[in-house]
Write a structure and sequence with these properties.
The complex is a heterodimer of chains A (617) and B (87). Chain A is α+β, with helices and mostly antiparallel strands and 617 residues long. Chain A is built from 10 helices and 38 strands. In chain A, strands 3-2-4-6-5 form a 5-stranded mixed beta sheet, covered by helices on one side. The two termini of chain A are 41 Å apart. Chain B is mainly α. Chains A and B meet through strand 5 and helix 5 of A and strand 1 of B.
């Protein structure tokens, strides 16, 4: 084995990792699992532990990229160089990068999850036989509704196990159509489209309209990735094979090796290679993300390449189903970190603590939370609003296909793989919050009698939802605004023309707003900006007042217009709050952030509450 | 009996790799993975042979110092991008 010069190693054992973005080749949960198992290879033989976090503070940052991807060591397209990693240390040290022009799989071909059908969401089995013919991709053969399906065993004719493949005819992702399937043809900028398109977008994502007229209805969704017919390499990486296509005057309805000497399968990405010359390589076995990751993580822990061909740290890729660690690898890693900790004695399970939130504290974190700025849809195609987001996929499509390849299948979604949490618990599904406030270093987000919270100190792990009435029993479920007065730690809650003041567990109220000195014209308090020294700005739509938290009275003469003092923020805000010394003005799903410190009240950022404050996917 | 059709081989646009000669492939590989420094290789066979020997030893290949088929196959194999030699 070899280590890096000077035995570079980590000097703490509880290492953290962050999956910064995802390849489209594999379902995200498969990618998460592959990385977790790759880390487990090393934690099994060392005292090291690996915990997943969601931010740049991680020791090991995992990234998919192509060509030059920011570190000065460019990838080289399909095959050849698969991935690389940096030895332990700060910054980019310890990070692992994977070439996304490779086809990432589990080493035995594309992994295509299925929906509905009768196979419990099992992935497709390629190749499979149907009516005696061999299929290496999803097909619509045998169906009249055009739905793509596959067998989940090698032989559909005998086993009859099947599922439906990701397809824009079955569902769409993100966008603003709640996962509804595409409608073909649809009209966009006056043109008719009968397939997904990247037109109107600069990020290359394929999208479609979910009604017949996008120009009129502005309803759209992104088309699921079809890894079974997406090409890699060539000059159309990421596009789909088009069958049939014409090559040297002959028609092909499957991938072919014709025309090549290296025996690799390819297809055209238009209907005529002879005229268009657009092509790419068809999916092959791909590279096992688990095996390559285990190797790269060896580097990230301090191991260099070995000359033992059978070892995991040998530089060449080779697929194996056996456990990948060789004794050479074990000797190397234990030279750096020693052996595993003695296993703790088995203990009886502990009882869960009384007050549990209604969902695990990392709700947002486990639902594809890390699609950072480098990936993910950026909004509808132009000329619509370029940034209109939606709350993301809402689970299995509601309408399933209604018949099987040769006869009617079971009606869905009896077996679709769905998320185990109630979507209502998912903070990422909330469009607009009733109120948002920083209370005790936690940013609280209130909605319909419940609230979520997170703190920077805990890596923005969202906790909740909790029930408002459990902590503040006197409160109604619908709130307009909330603020904590920093000196007294009193928490003011506003709803309609009423106010409650909590000091710890004791409450004063409800009282009417006129008790605070507001006139009858003030129907609600929509926000508050604590300014220190017991002074707070209280907002009601376009106006705000100075409020003295000690006397608990506003100065009626201090009424001012928002737009005069805070230029650039919307006037019909539904919430205003202070968070880490920045003022946030919320309207619809967006916030306008203003830095009040420098005395120049200038908008410094406009973004989404869910995507950027909560970092939802 | 019909005569077997001679396969037509075409050059696919964007398929760069097929353009490199074996020697070019070797020089690029030896530099990329740390066996040679920039412009270290010159036309004399000695330096290439020396570098090949280092590579063959490192990768547990037969140490011939020649750009033989085994070595070329290794150079064409998918692999990790971390250099084998050097920092």
């Amino acid at each position: 084995f070899q280590t890096f010069e000077g035995d570079l190693k980590w000097h703490h054992q509880n290492l953290t990792y962050w999956i910064q973005n995802y390849s489209e080749d594999l379902p995200r949960n498969v990618i998460d699992d592959a990385f977790a198992r790759a880390f487990a290879v090393w934690s099994a033989v060392t005292p090291l532990t690996f915990t997943r976090v969601y931010g740049v503070e991680a020791d090991i940052i995992i990234q998919f990229g192509v060509r030059e991807h920011g570190d000065g060591y460019p990838f080289d397209g399909k095959d050849g160089l698969l991935a690389h990693a940096f030895p332990p240390g700060q910054g980019i040290q310890g990070d692992a990068h994977f070439d996304d022009e490779e086809l990432w799989s589990l080493g035995k071909g594309v992994v295509v999850p299925t929906f509905f059908g009768n196979a419990d969401g099992a992935p497709c089995h390629f190749p499979f036989t149907f009516e005696g013919r061999n299929y290496s991709a999803c097909t619509t053969d045998g169906r009249s509704d055009g739905q793509l399906w596959c067998s989940t065993t090698a032989d559909y004719d005998t086993d009859r196990r099947f599922g439906f493949c990701p397809s824009e005819r079955l569902y769409t992702e993100h966008g603003n159509s709640d996962g509804k399937p595409c409608v073909f043809p649809f009209t966009f900028e006056g043109r008719s489209y009968s397939a997904c398109t990247t037109d109107g977008r600069s990020d290359g994502y394929r999208w479609c309209a979910t009604t017949a007229n996008y120009d009129q209805d502005k309803l759209y969704g992104f088309c699921p990735t079809r890894v079974d017919t997406t090409v890699t390499g060539g000059n159309s990486a990421g596009e789909l094979c088009v069958f049939p296509f014409v090559f040297l005057g002959q028609e092909y309805s499957t991938c072919t090796r014709d025309g090549r000497t290296d025996g690799r399968l390819w297809c055209a990405t238009t209907s005529n290679f002879d005229s268009d010359k657009k092509w790419g390589f068809c999916p092959d076995q791909g590279y096992s993300l688990f095996l390559v990751a285990a190797h790269e993580f060896g580097h990230a822990l301090g191991l260099d390449h070995t000359s033992v061909p059978e070892a995991l740290m040998y530089p060449m890729y080779s697929y194996t189903e056996k456990p990948p660690l060789h004794e050479d690898d074990v000797k190397g890693i234990q030279h750096l970190y020693g052996g595993p900790r003695p296993k703790p004695e088995p203990r009886p399970p502990t009882t869960t603590p009384e007050t549990q939130p209604t969902a695990p504290p990392t709700v947002c974190a486990t639902v594809r939370p890390s699609e950072g700025p480098t990936a993910g849809p950026t909004g509808p195609p132009s000329p619509g609003p370029t940034n209109a987001p939606t709350a993301g996929p809402t689970g299995a499509p509601t309408a399933g296909p209604t018949d099987s390849p040769t006869r009617a299948p079971t009606a869905g979604p009896s077996v679709a793989p769905t998320e185990s949490l109630d979507p209502a618990d998912n903070v990422c599904n909330v469009d607009i919050f009733d109120a948002i406030a920083e209370i005790g270093n936690y940013l609280h987000l209130f909605k319909d009698g419940r609230y979520w919270r997170f703190s920077e100190a805990q890596g923005r792990l969202v906790q909740g939802p909790f029930l408002i009435r459990d902590k503040w029993p006197a409160l109604p479920s619908k709130l307009d605004s909330v603020f904590e007065e920093p000196q007294s730690k009193k928490i003011f809650f506003f709803s309609g023309r009423q106010v409650w003041v909590y000091t710890g567990a004791t409450v004063l109220g409800p009282r009417r707003l006129d008790k605070l000195g507001f006139g009858p014209e003030v129907a609600q308090v929509t926000g508050a900006l604590p300014r220190g020294g017991g002074k707070v700005l209280l907002f009601s739509r376009q106006n705000f007042w100075r409020f003295d938290a000690k006397s608990q009275m506003v100065d009626p003469k201090s009424a001012s217009r928002v737009d005069r003092t805070f230029p650039g923020v919307p006037t019909n805000m539904h919430d205003v709050f202070l968070y880490r010394d920045k003022a946030y003005f919320c309207q619809d799903r967006y916030y306008w952030r203003m830095n009040l410190q420098n005395g120049i009240n200038q908008v410094e950022e406009v973004n989404y509450v869910t995507y950027d404050l909560l970092q939802c996917p | 009996a019909p005569r077997p059709r001679q396969p037509t081989v075409v050059v696919f646009p964007g398929d760069l790799r097929t353009d490199l000669t074996n020697k070019q492939l070797a020089e690029e590989y030896l530099y990329r993975y740390g066996y040679t420094q920039v412009a270290e290789l010159s036309d004399d066979k000695q330096s290439l042979s020396r570098a090949l020997r280092v590579l063959q030893k490192r990768l547990s290949l037969p140490e011939t110092g020649e750009l033989d088929s085994t070595t070329l196959a290794a150079m064409r194999a998918p692999r990790c991008g971390v250099p084998d030699v050097g920092r």
